[in-house]
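Protocol step 4 of 6: structure prediction from sequence.
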Amino acid sequence: MLVTNYQQYKGVLFVFGHGEGDPGCVYQKETEAEMIRRLKPHLIKWGKTLAVPVTCYPRNLYYHANDLKEYQDWIVVELHLDAARIPGKGGHVIIHQWFKPDAIDKNLITVIDQHFSLVTRTSKGLSCRKDLKNCNTAAQYGINYRLVELFFLADKQDRMYYLNHLDDIAKTIVQAISGQKDCRCVD
């Protein structure tokens, strides 16, 4: 893991994509909104190992994007599952095209590769975009933000891996933010 500057921020905000009636991508009976929220208790658990507060945004941030201004001095990690007409394999990190990936982004790319493999967009595991509402809003406020697509919901192998390794995935996401390879949770 690369060393990060996460302790310079007020906290870490985890955002779960979709919700409030928006299912996100759907595969058979599974919805992205429900599936991605299964990480929440595990992220809260491992987030307690960080030296800054960790919280989860309670709503669909797409509907309330201006709420991001309340998190100007926070690290924001928005979590999603990917979808496509022809499902792919793996995941990637999306940042605004105005910015270069920081150590947290690079660590998250490593975590995705460790668990699911990487989708190649503009570079392996990284997409720089300017057409996403939350990404644009965060960029306007100068927020340390990234959207993480963990894997394609329709990929059965990745979906089953995810469901069977929620705690380990959450732990490595927190480690990516802290830049520490070993964090121990005290329950």
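Step 5 (inspection) to follow. The radius of gyration is 15 Å.
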